[in-house]
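Quick one:
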Amino acid sequence: MEMIDGVAMNKAHPDTFEIPSDAEKAAITSENWVKVGFIAPGPKANTERMWVKVTKMSGDDIEGVLDNDPVLVPHLITAGDVVKLKKIHVLAIT
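Output:
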């Protein structure tokens, strides 16, 4: 499933699209939740931001479990599914 590239969006819109710093992303552990923007396939390319509980980190690779049931793409992904992403996809950390 395609995800928002937060780094590219921040570069294109630095005043309105904030993302965590590289240092904050480097400090992500399995104690964290990360917000990811999933892009719904189709002509409108709507996005849905959802939380992922981090379970594994390896360099820029993050693996976690989706915490939300999506509205836009429930047929593609559901809460509890394993999600693999990169640090560039992280939009927020908690």
